[in-house]
Design goal:
Helix content of chain A: 25-40%
CATH class of the largest domain in chain B: Alpha Beta
CATH topology of one domain in chain A: FAD/NAD(P)-binding domain
Largest interface: A-B, 137 and 94 residues
Number of strands of chain B: 9
Number of helices of chain B: 7
Shape of chain B: elongated
Oligomer: heterodimer
Number of helices of chain A: 16
Structural class of chain A: alpha/beta
CATH architecture of one domain in chain A: 3-Layer(bba) Sandwich
CATH class of one domain in chain A: Alpha Beta
Shape of chain A: globular
Radius of gyration of chain A: 31 Å
Distance between the termini of chain B: 67 Å
CATH superfamily of one domain in chain A: FAD/NAD(P)-binding domain
CATH architecture of the largest domain in chain B: 3-Layer(aba) Sandwich
Strand content of chain A: 15-25%
Number of strands of chain A: 29
Radius of gyration of chain B: 27 Å
């Protein structure tokens, strides 16, 4: 912490938030709001005279509310920068007539009640997002009595109570009587691996080892104290972890496999009782404890939406930020030039956070050291003469890479090529064909559709496959030598979001019995959320063909990942059966309907 | 909607059919596919190779580009996931824009998955080559633009990850802006007493 504070290359902007990010890889313009701190951090020498005279005491967040701080305070002794900050919400008023004691007490005169937020602009080439996590609030698990019983605490509260820098100076006491507890229990997985909706379904990764660590601290500080851990599995998978776990057991900590159903309190001495089914012995056990620690899980940052929007990040189903590729690009964000590190990506411990941070820094250094970067050639472009300024392309773009048009001033939309990743959703959505997709143009794809249906069209399963998942799923079927019928004819697009309605209708018009559109599963989409547009467009298209009297079953949508060779082969087998069921009469009727539809349109147009 | 007739005058397409040893040739009649490719519009050269990706195969492509003045190249072989970069570089070496190259997958998507249906697999390969050539007729050169990178980094979040990332970049000589929402850096880590597995102090 100190190193970063005094590093000549680091400009530290604390009490600050990123307000806007524009631009693209290598060329980001960022606005940062430096919030009013009311204390000049350059002048403040953290003498503490201000806090001594401040009459306002509020619970100290850093100490989990176990002690109080003043309205003007140093967050904790080792804070960087080592400067006080004035919490204006709790200050008696920035009108010095109301109080003003701190300003009077400050010899260096570094307190300014009229301090204002300041907006600063910075230009950067790369961005690393490391916005962290929040901890799970165990209130929902009312059976553990966290809000009802004083001696039920969370693992974060435990940290402060055992810490020499904590509210008790490291004397581990329980809240109800300030006495040292003789028997301490830990309940694991509070808010993690939960299927009942009160917690999260995922494993929070760090809580097992954190509890093992806590038990060892107790053994070390208070030999003879009875410690019990109630768990479902102990996941001690990392380097050196199993050793710690074994040490904890050897020190006498009792590990009981079973999660207690309910915690009760003895109202006389505030001791806690719990009943648990020990699943190792199959017996119901009762335990009396002086103190109970809830090993709370990790959750995504609750205020993370703003940063997600600013950097066009997306999340996996657990709410953590999605990486560009889970194995091969684990610290790259889908937006080029943006990297991720730490718990915003998934729950992780200090070592993994540091590892990931160094990886992100190394990945970012590649761009910084090179001083230049090649940008994707497969990008979209606006066809000015066709645009009617509707603005749809800008709204569709998952990367905010298209500056919006303006109908009133007839301002054309502008594609920022460097920010465009090339999914083609804009080109597929534009009703005017006013967006062209380089290297995956309408002409190119329509030519493929026609070529495929130039021979035996009534037998061909026209298949659109996205480059990253479905096409690769087909490759996986191949490398696994999974055999399937020969009817499929693949047309590759970068993203299923590129598949224009007219490609599908054209295929039907030329006699295709069936069309398959395939793409990545929602969570795997390589273009943030472009695949959502595939889904929406397909829904619309199903409606449309139904109205035209075409059986909706003849247009299929499948999500097939790169690893799902088996699924790819299975889909091909299933659809082959469906292809066989489409009669020549049905196909020819469809062709006639679509030809007539086209003629109608041409007359109108 | 009718497809426009290829705009470019003088399209000269070369098709290269790869046997991939027996990986493709074992199922598909590559000679028949090659013969068929010759009948496709604007195709002026067809070459059949044992391994198109190997140096002799690549040299055939380069030679044909010069000899037949090819301005589009179609390779029917394996998945573009493996050798699209190889062939793009190959055609670029011979002076063609790498985006004037098109790949047709007749291995993963045909020969390996229809091993017992040789005739139907050969017909499918022909259809896919026809599709590839049709696409190639509309290919246009693309430029991968180069943009400068501002030599500074923004790190958002001053917890342990943000601190480490900022320090690494700064130690590497780069200017770093570290933005932290709270009044101090440290994040959750600073609220911990000791950290596993070393059991040392968190701050």
């Amino acid at each position: 912490m100190m190193d970063v504070g005094r590093h000549p290359n680091v400009e530290l902007l604390t009490f600050s938030e990123v307000e806007s990010v524009t631009g693209f890889v290598g060329n980001f313009s960022v606005t940062v709001r430096k919030k009013a701190r009311y204390v000049d951090p350059k002048e403040c020498n953290a003498c503490g005279d201000c806090a001594d005279v401040c009459p306002q005491a509020v619970p100290d967040e850093y100490q989990q509310g176990f002690s109080s701080r003043k309205a003007i305070y140093l967050p904790f002794p080792q804070a960087v920068p080592s400067s006080y900050v004035l919490d204006m919400k709790n200050c008696l008023g920035n009108n010095p007539i109301a109080c003003g004691k701190c300003a009077d007490a400050c010899e260096k005169k570094c307190i300014n009640y009229d301090d204002q937020d300041e907006l600063i602009n910075i230009e950067v080439g790369v961005i690393i997002a490391a916005t962290g996590m929040d901890v799970y609030d165990p209130t929902a698990y009312d059976e553990y009595g966290y809000t009802r019983f004083e001696n039920v605490i969370t693992s974060m509260e435990f940290e402060r109570l055992i810490c020499a820098g904590g509210p008790t100076g490291g004397h581990f006491i329980r809240p109800s009587d300030q006495q040292q507890p003789q028997s301490i229990g830990f309940i694991q997985c509070v808010g993690s691996r939960s299927k009942d909706g009160r917690g999260n379904p995922y494993c929070s990764n760090i809580c097992c080892m954190n509890t093992v660590k806590d038990t060892l601290l107790l053994c070390d500080h208070y030999p003879g104290v009875e410690t019990k851990v109630f768990y479902m599995d102990i996941r001690a998978f990392g380097k050196g972890f199993e050793d710690l776990y074994v040490r904890s057991r050897e020190e006498g900590v009792k590990y009981i496999r079973g999660i207690p159903g309910e915690v009760m309190e003895n109202p006389e001495n505030q001791n806690l009782f719990l009943t648990v089914e020990n699943t190792t012995t199959g017996k119901i056990e009762k335990h009396e404890l002086d103190l109970l620690v809830l090993s709370q899980g990790v959750i995504p940052r609750q205020d993370g939406d703003a940063i997600k929007k600013l950097l066009t990040l997306s999340t996996t189903s657990d709410g953590f930020i999605m990486e560009s590729h889970p194995k091969l690009k684990p610290v790259d964000a889908p937006t080029k030039g943006v990297f991720i590190a730490g718990c915003l990506e998934s729950p992780k411990d200090v070592k993994d956070s540091v590892t990931q941070a160094s990886a992100a820094a190394a990945r970012a250094s590649i761009l910084l050291n090179a001083g230049k970067t090649k940008i994707e050639a497969i990008t979209s472009k606006i066809v000015p003469e066709k645009c009617n300024f509707c603005g749809l392309c800008s709204r569709v773009c998952p990367y905010n890479a298209i500056l919006a048009s303006d109908k009133k001033t007839r301002k054309l939309p502008v594609v920022i090529s460097a920010a465009c990743a090339g999914c083609g959703a804009c080109a597929a959505e534009c009703p005017q064909d006013a967006v062209a997709m380089n290297h995956f143009t309408d002409d190119q794809i329509m030519a493929q559709v026609e070529a495929i249906l130039a021979r035996d069209p009534y037998k061909q399963l026209v298949t659109f496959a996205c480059n990253w998942c479905s096409y690769a799923g087909g490759d996986m079927a191949g490398t696994s030598r999974l055999q399937y019928p020969t009817s499929s004819r693949l047309i590759r697009t970068m993203c299923s979001g590129r598949v224009d309605e007219k490609f599908v209708l054209h295929a039907f018009k030329l006699g295709a019995p069936m069309v398959l559109v395939s793409g990545c599963h929602f969570a795997d989409c390589h273009y943030i959320n472009a695949v959502h547009w595939t889904q929406k467009r397909m829904d619309k298209l199903w409606n449309k063909i139904e109205k035209l009297g075409i059986r909706v079953d003849r247009l299929q949508l499948e999500w097939i990942s790169a690893a799902e060779g088996q699924k790819f082969a299975r889909v091909m087998r299933t659809l082959e059966e469906k292809v066989k069921q489409v009669s020549v009469e049905e196909i020819e009727h469809t062709m006639k309907v679509l030809r007539e539809e086209e003629e109608k349109k041409e007359k109108k147009g | 909607m009718a497809v426009n007739v290829a705009k470019a005058e003088g399209l000269r397409i070369g098709v290269f059919v790869c046997e991939c040893g027996l990986n493709i040739q074992g199922t598909i009649d590559c000679a028949a596919v090659s013969e068929y490719a010759k009948t496709l519009p604007d195709v002026v050269a067809v070459v059949q190779n044992k391994y198109t990706c190997a140096d002799p195969g690549q040299n055939e492509i380069k030679k044909a580009i010069g000899e037949y003045k090819l301005n589009r190249v179609v390779v029917a072989s394996c998945t573009p996931k493996i050798h699209e970069p190889t062939f793009r570089e190959c055609v670029a070496d011979a002076g063609l824009n790498p985006y004037l190259f098109e790949m047709v997958n007749i291995r993963e998507h045909v020969s390996w998955v229809h091993q017992s249906e040789k005739d139907a697999a050969t017909e499918k390969a022909k259809d896919l080559v026809r599709s590839g050539v049709a696409r190639a007729r509309f290919l246009e050169p693309q430029i991968e633009a180069v943009v400068p990178v501002t030599k500074a980094a923004l790190v958002i979040g001053g917890g342990v990850a943000g601190i480490q990332a900022a320090l690494d970049l700064a130690d590497g000589g780069h200017k770093v802006y570290l933005v932290e929402k709270e009044a101090t850096i440290g994040g959750i880590m600073a609220a911990l007493d000791k950290t596993y597995p070393t059991m040392d102090c968190s701050i």
